[in-house]
Design goal:
Elements (H helix, E strand, L loop, with lengths): L2 H39 L1 H33 L5 H4 L1
Helix pairs in contact: 1-2
Length: about 80
Amino acid sequence: MDFDLFMERYGYKILLGIMAAVIIGLFAIPALGIARLIKTYGLEVGLMFIIVAAAYGFIVWRRSSEAYAKAHGKYFYDDKWYKRR
C-alpha cells in the first residue's frame, strides 16, 4: 500500500484521533488537577478553588475581554472613527 492510498483510507481517522486526544486532554488535565487538589487538601479547599476560578472568569476576565474587544472595534474595525474625533 502506498502512502497516498494509506492517507486516503486512514488519514482522517488518524487526524480525528489526534484532535480527540487534544480536546480530551484540555479538559482532563485541569479536572485531574482539581481532583488531586480535593484529595490532598479536602473538599472545602477544592470547592473554594473552583468558586474563585469561576468568579475570576465571570468578573475579571470578562471585563478585560470586553474592554479589549471595544478597543479593537473602535480603532481597527470602525471606518468612520477618524471622522468623529
